[in-house]
Amino acid sequence: MAADDDVEGAAALRAAMVCELRDQGVIRSEAVVAAFTAVPRHLFTPGESLEVAYGVDNVPVVKRGDNGLALSSVSAPHLQALMLEAAEITAGMRVCEIGSGGYNAALVAELVGDGGHVTTVDIDPDIVGRARAFLDEAGYHRVNVVLADAEGGVPDAAPFDRIIVTAGSWDIPPAWIDQLADDGRIVVPLRLRGTTRWIAFDRDRSGSLTSRDYGLCSFVPFQGIGSHSERNVTVDDGVVLRLDDENLKVDPEALRRALHLPRIERWSGATFDMPDEQMLFLLTNEPDMALLHAEQKIVDRRLLARPVLTGVPALIGGDGFAYRAARTNGATGGYESGVYAHGPSAEDLAARYVELLCQWAANHHRRGAASIRYVPRSVAPPPPASGVIPKRHGTVVVTWP
Ligand SMILES: C[S@@+](CC[C@H](N)C(=O)[O-])C[C@H]1O[C@@H](n2cnc3c(N)ncnc32)[C@H](O)[C@@H]1O
What we know:
27% helix; ten-stranded mixed beta sheet; Rossmann fold; alpha+beta; globular; 401 residues; binds S-adenosylmethionine
């Protein structure tokens, strides 16, 4: 039987998906339960098995670029649920989804009901065609599907009570803020110093945005006029620094020499968990941080330790660098954070890093500790500081109250 025809099997897996998301505390409201229960996700993932369609963390890729990287995918139910709960969409709202696929727009259509209005916009004609066809097949004829570069928003359908962005964005274009109602909310995956957080922002009358909630996520990149590439600095074969900040000066040759010097290690005595929260703290409290990545062969040669495989915040000095380490803490059964440092200034860099690890553990060791603001160009810019991240159209300000 084709996946599309197994209506009962699909309904059972859909119910199990909703149960799992509820048990995880990801779905919290009855409205979101009802939306996820109503929309047949498998109709938006043709060619995939029902098990793949309804897996809470599954992200079926729809299109890849020439480099093999995903350009479009159907986002994971887990992430869609988190973002929809953060959006708090209610009946009658006007909502714009940026980045289409059809499924998430159908969920939003369930949330806004017959009195509301949903627009979904995508830059890719193939994706727009698929979304329109799938939405029609599933009965969501009223969803407005638009082909455009969403850098300009969708002025014809504005204003919106909610905007949900489903592609990884480096900045927040003025059109999104302009097209948001005065007390509207935008949920956007925003890249901050190389890592992306979905952030639910409330707009105030000046056009500034203030976060209510955020979480780590990963999305296909925003394309078109608003796309933004990171700077990749090769330190050695298989070792790269990813820099999201144009002002950070790096001497790759000096760092390469440091890499081949013996490392020192220093331990903080502080707990290590919630790596995503700790990472945001490190990246936004020290302007000389970048993400250090390396390949397995570098770890196998014991030049660098395992955290570099997925990217780790590294404090960059003129002639050396330091990065976060972790080891088991026999006394607590958990982990302790520490630092590996290389180069002539290793001792200083390690001390600065350990100080940050201790600050985070003592004062900010919890989920959602940061407060994030976006100040558009039209509003007076905040003075430079370590948590102040300049963007093209405004400034992100991350503070740790
Ligand atoms: C993760 S997919 C969207 C998933 C979808 N919301 C769902 O229901 O699962 C991200 C989409 O963003 C689109 N996109 C990227 N840059 C864009 C831009 N500048 N304007 C509009 N869409 C864009 C891509 O073509 C891609 O289809």
